[in-house]
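Sample pair:
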Amino acid sequence: MFIKITVVVSAATMLITGVWMRIDPASFADWANWPNHEHFLHDAGVFQIGIGLMMLFALWWRDVIAVVLAGFVFTNSFHAVNHLLDRHLGGRDSDWWQLALFSLLAAAGLAYRLRAVRRRRRQA
């Protein structure tokens, strides 16, 4: 029980700070005494959220590969969204769709993995 509580509390801190960085980067930068680099904070927020979600997924799923793929699909997809929405802040116009292609590949891998795990459970 102690480990589950630790994971949930740790995940919550990652989710809270990640959402804060994503939706109000200037406020977070001021609080953390960091430079207010909007795109960097958007990306950092998404990665924080991704870590928090992976921690929670690990409590739900026992399959490490599924946890990692689910975390990657979420995090990389929202990273792609950041690059699409923050195009005016720099980067290349191709960044968002290239990231999105990797998310699609990982989503296909996750679907295949979940199907294989379900099939193994039914056979057991």
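The chain is about 85% helix and 0% strand.
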